[in-house]
Write a structure and sequence with these properties.
This protein is an alpha+beta fold. It has helices spanning 3-12, 46-52, 166-181, 186-197, 236-239, 274-281, 290-300, 340-377, 430-448, 453-467, 552-570, 577-585, 623-638, 644-661, 702-709, and strands at 27-28, 110-111, 117-118, 146-147, 204-210, 225-233, 266-268, 285-286, 312-318, 323-330, 388-395, 406-413, 417-425, 473-481, 486-492, 498-500, 506-508, 526-530, 536-540, 597-604, 612-617, 666-672, 675-682, 712-718, 721-729. The longest helix is centred in the middle third of the chain and has 38 residues, at 340-377.
Length: 735
Amino acid sequence: MPAQRREDAHAGTRPAADDPAVAPAPARTRASSHPEPGEAAATGSPAGAASAALPAGVAERTPDAVADNDARKPAASGAERPAQGDPAARPKSTTAPADIAGRPEPAGPEATAAGTPVPRAKGASVAAPAAGHPGPAGPDGAGAQAAAPAEDTGRRPADGAGHPAGGERLRFVGAATRRIARGIDLDEIVLGLCRATVPTFADAILVYLRDPLPVGDERPVGPVVLRLRRTDQLPDHVRGTEGDAADPEAERPEPVPDLAGCAAERCEVRIGGPLAEVLRGVRPVFGDSSAARAALPELLGDDRPVPDRRRTILAPLRGRRRVIGAAVFVRRPDRAAFENDDLLVAAQLATHTALGVDKAVLYGREVYIADELQRTMLPDSLPQPTGVRLASRYLPAAETARVGGDWYDAIPLPGNRVALVVGDVMGHSMTSAAIMGQLRTTAQTLAGLDLPPAEVLHHLDEQAQRLGSDRMATCMYAVYDPVAHRIVIANAGHPPPILLHRGGRAEVLRVPPGAPIGVGGVDFEAVELDAPAGATLLLYTDGLVESRIRDVWTGIEQLRERLIETARLTGPNPPPLEPLCDEVLGMLGPGDRDDDIALLAARFEGIAPSDVAYWFLDPRPQTARQARRLARRALTRWGLEELTDAVELLVSEVITNAVRYAERPITLRLLRTDVLRCEVGDDVPQLPRLRQARPSDEGGRGLYLVNRLARRWGATRLSTGKVVWFELALPGTCR
């Protein structure tokens, strides 16, 4: 082909510069291995101009340019129309390109690159020739070329109305569902839905949830109530209500209505109503549908303005078993309406949100159960027996592990003694908490029997073995006697306690380490130590002194130094207990919270010897008279003569019951603290019980008198017998 004709042919395929619908695209040459003799390109033909006017991305087949008198080329099935708007592209021959609107293709086979004629499907594009294959006009490839489609990017571009393409929708749904799934609690999930939706998918969103939300298989009682949980919408400056500040004379857009500010806060779903039908249908519906037009006023309120046409989507939120709410997606009037594909997007968002809400509700219930379990396993408040002050702290391992196996306890014992217990069950799970509760209950029962500390640990070891072979725990059990100013401690594999003296000296008490509870076959040893007044004993679990970044003995030394520094701030006086516990917990660093922590602090105050009167009495008939005389002398020494009559009567009744059954000497002890306490001990293990004596009975009224006159009274079984005690309020104090 001459060079001039080739240049004209290429010039005829350029798109018009003033046609915005035309996009340039790389041309692809239809391959033909057998060019016809005398075949040439149509130079400057109107058909070539029409082919060039096609928009990019539309498949077009350029016909063979042949002479009118060439009888060997099959004729086209019909004349093609030129592209609209191009007056130069008018057909001048019967051979014309296929119409882009889908009109019939010219009859005849298509020539493939291999030369085999195959029929071409309607609208299919012509493949470019392989490398090295000549074009229809010869080896130089200067023949007529077909307009090729635009490059496939894997997504449909946005159309003129601003609707996202299919690939964009998939990416949006993927990102939105990931953001929703990141939430753990209810607020995070709902917030994730709102932030992922506005403004990408909608201009405003309203999320309604059932109140209360059902949990698991619970069947709610009463009508279904939806409450507005959260709303979100574009701010005013983004919605365009402020106008264009750069051009004051420009026409301001119409104010955009508040899409989420005036919705009803609460909605009671009527049985059989339009809203109930939409929620039962589960699938999202457009706001202009008949079902939504009746349901939206019931949900949002009758005076709630809703954009017309398809600018509102009502999507029910259905969890695993039931509908738990609804979401309303709204677009402002100046934005393109929703499409049918947007219903699928809304359905995906609603489904993932509902499942996330179900997950959050179940997680919240588990957290509530864990908190309640831990709260009931640990004492709500510590007793404040005479002669000792107590303070405690408990910290879980983390917010996601609120329960654990650490526990502490303080148990009052006869004689104003108190048992101090701190234990640690292996692990920090619900199972550990359950085992801890059983061991704590066992320790309280054993303490009520007033068993020695070593015996208590021995029975706890047996109980742990009955619970399972892998039930391991450590425990520290101590009994403080404020009268004797002594403390007895037994240890079962627990970190040693620290005693902070009044002058600021802190020492780690040397107690036998022992084996953990649950090992079995190990004897426990107890030691008796001095407990001076003003000293503070700290019992703790290993979570306070051991972590991934420090060993247990390093942590114990740091705790001892921390106590010394705190004691220096108060000088000769001991530091207050509550601030002291806070200071101890302040030593924890960011990497020190590997385990839960239990802390029990006991400030020893003791009872002065001058406030204690103690006697041994033989079980004889004259013992009751002797006990009355001794009690009267003690009250006179303390200046409590006003209580003489009541004390003599009650002491006589209790001593008489002890003398009747006792075989060994009886103990009588009076203690003056904030109350007057009287204790009578004997070697008979049977506890007395209160009964209503008949008029004809000669006895049975002693405990009745004690119950009527005493402020409190009780009986405690000991390993050597029992103790019956009662308390009277001091003169000038409230009863």
